[in-house]
Prior knowledge:
Helices cover 17% and strands 36% of the residues. It is of the alpha+beta class and 84 residues long.
Amino acid sequence: MSNMITFSAAKPGDRGTIAALNNHDPLTINRLLAMGISPGVSVTLEQTFPAYILKVGHTRVSLDRETAFHIYFWPQTPEILPTP
Length: 84
Protein backbone atom coordinates (compact mmCIF):
# COMPACT_ATOMS: atom_id res chain seq x y z
CA MET A 1 0.00 0.00 0.00
CA SER A 2 1.11 3.60 -0.62
CA ASN A 3 2.47 5.94 2.00
CA MET A 4 -0.02 7.92 4.02
CA ILE A 5 -0.54 11.58 3.17
CA THR A 6 -2.81 14.30 4.53
CA PHE A 7 -5.64 15.82 2.53
CA SER A 8 -3.80 19.15 2.64
CA ALA A 9 -1.16 17.47 0.40
CA ALA A 10 -3.69 15.83 -1.94
CA LYS A 11 -5.19 17.04 -5.21
CA PRO A 12 -8.84 17.16 -6.29
CA GLY A 13 -9.87 13.77 -7.65
CA ASP A 14 -7.58 11.84 -5.29
CA ARG A 15 -9.29 8.83 -3.73
CA GLY A 16 -8.26 6.73 -0.81
CA THR A 17 -9.01 5.22 2.56
CA ILE A 18 -8.81 7.15 5.82
CA ALA A 19 -5.82 5.84 7.79
CA ALA A 20 -5.76 8.05 10.91
CA LEU A 21 -7.11 11.18 12.54
CA ASN A 22 -4.11 12.97 14.03
CA ASN A 23 -5.73 15.51 16.32
CA HIS A 24 -5.78 15.61 20.12
CA ASP A 25 -8.87 17.83 20.36
CA PRO A 26 -11.80 15.58 21.31
CA LEU A 27 -14.33 18.06 19.87
CA THR A 28 -12.65 17.93 16.45
CA ILE A 29 -12.40 14.13 16.53
CA ASN A 30 -16.07 13.82 17.53
CA ARG A 31 -17.10 16.24 14.76
CA LEU A 32 -15.17 14.24 12.16
CA LEU A 33 -16.63 10.96 13.39
CA ALA A 34 -20.14 12.45 13.27
CA MET A 35 -19.53 13.38 9.63
CA GLY A 36 -18.56 9.80 8.83
CA ILE A 37 -14.81 10.46 8.64
CA SER A 38 -13.06 7.62 10.46
CA PRO A 39 -10.26 5.14 9.78
CA GLY A 40 -11.17 2.57 7.13
CA VAL A 41 -13.67 4.79 5.29
CA SER A 42 -13.22 5.38 1.54
CA VAL A 43 -13.23 9.04 0.49
CA THR A 44 -12.67 11.22 -2.57
CA LEU A 45 -11.23 14.74 -2.44
CA GLU A 46 -13.41 16.86 -4.71
CA GLN A 47 -12.16 20.38 -4.01
CA THR A 48 -9.39 22.18 -2.11
CA PHE A 49 -10.37 25.85 -2.42
CA PRO A 50 -11.96 27.77 -0.79
CA ALA A 51 -12.65 24.75 1.45
CA TYR A 52 -11.76 21.07 1.29
CA ILE A 53 -14.73 19.05 0.05
CA LEU A 54 -14.62 15.31 0.70
CA LYS A 55 -17.09 12.82 -0.71
CA VAL A 56 -17.82 10.25 1.97
CA GLY A 57 -20.32 7.70 0.66
CA HIS A 58 -23.25 9.73 -0.70
CA THR A 59 -22.38 12.74 1.49
CA ARG A 60 -20.13 15.71 0.84
CA VAL A 61 -18.28 17.20 3.79
CA SER A 62 -16.64 20.63 3.94
CA LEU A 63 -13.44 21.05 5.97
CA ASP A 64 -11.03 23.91 6.61
CA ARG A 65 -7.34 23.48 5.76
CA GLU A 66 -6.32 23.07 9.41
CA THR A 67 -8.69 20.12 9.87
CA ALA A 68 -7.70 18.56 6.53
CA PHE A 69 -4.06 18.70 7.67
CA HIS A 70 -4.89 16.26 10.50
CA ILE A 71 -6.57 13.58 8.37
CA TYR A 72 -4.19 10.95 7.01
CA PHE A 73 -5.23 8.64 4.20
CA TRP A 74 -3.80 5.96 1.95
CA PRO A 75 -4.18 7.13 -1.65
CA GLN A 76 -5.72 4.65 -4.02
CA THR A 77 -3.20 3.82 -6.71
CA PRO A 78 -4.57 3.28 -10.19
CA GLU A 79 -4.42 -0.33 -11.29
CA ILE A 80 -1.92 -1.00 -14.01
CA LEU A 81 -3.63 -2.85 -16.81
CA PRO A 82 -1.58 -5.23 -18.95
CA THR A 83 -1.01 -4.12 -22.51
CA PRO A 84 -2.71 -6.32 -25.08
